Amino acid sequence: xxxxxxxxILSFGAADPAGATGVQADLATFSALSCIxxxxxxxxxxxxxxxxxxxxxxxxxxxxxxxxxxxxxMTMAAFKVGAITNLxxxxxxxxxxxxxxxAPLILDxxxxxxxxxxxxxxxxxxxxxxxxxxPQATLVMLSQVELGRLAETWRESGEGEDTLESDVEHLxxxxxxxxxxxxxxxxxxxxxAAAPNTLANTLYGADGVISHDAWQHLAGPFIGxxxxxxxxxxxxxxxGAEVPEAVAAAQEYTVGAxxxxxxxGMGKFVPNRFFHLQAIEDLQ
Length: 284
What we know:
CATH topology: UDP-N-acetylmuramoyl-L-alanine:D-glutamate ligase
Number of strands: 9
Strand order of the largest sheet: 3-2-1-4-5-6-7-8-9
Order of helices and strands: EHEEHEHEHEHHEEEHHH
Number of domains: 1
Shape: globular
Number of helices: 9
Oligomer: single chain
């Protein structure tokens, strides 16, 4: 008999030994935000807090079986899809998720931490993600650079008039409900001294821009910042928040995690996903 009260979330992604990105980072964020995380591993990494030395893909059948066994036993409140490393994995994950259209799906498929495939393989992978996963997503999260890379899979050769907005419109037309573009120009008010040091996250929906939130740029260097944001988004949506509310709450949480980031070793700073719990302990 099921007696769990916290929302269950299934995350697809790589296993990072440093816990900075991938499913380990997702599970930490879910736990910090009162959700229970489960994971399907798509790749095994060899790396530390500075860089990844190597990656081993997980067989697509193993990816599918990991998910199906869990889903036959438990009901998910939301799904998150992170790094997927080959075409067969994309097809397997897309087929599984098609059986659960009522649960929110957050798609955050890019990771600068993973080794990049050859150009031809990369284009095929991006095309498969666009065709099979984007149409199922509640929200697609990507940076301006990542949006440009994805847009290259549909732009005609020689086209140079495409804008960020037109690229976002293309993704929305494919069927996803929202697109969150990170690292956009802050667009601060004139005379605002902080504006040159701010970045923004812009949320788009069917009617255009929904929110444009500027945040003070923190020096870092960080690893896992975007991973933290997309995982927090998933957690807030699993708890019932609407997308605009979830985006705002996830951004606040991520800024706090980065402001309290820790350096585990000689590499980059890792977001402190339990910073708010430490603040409570300090008051006791």
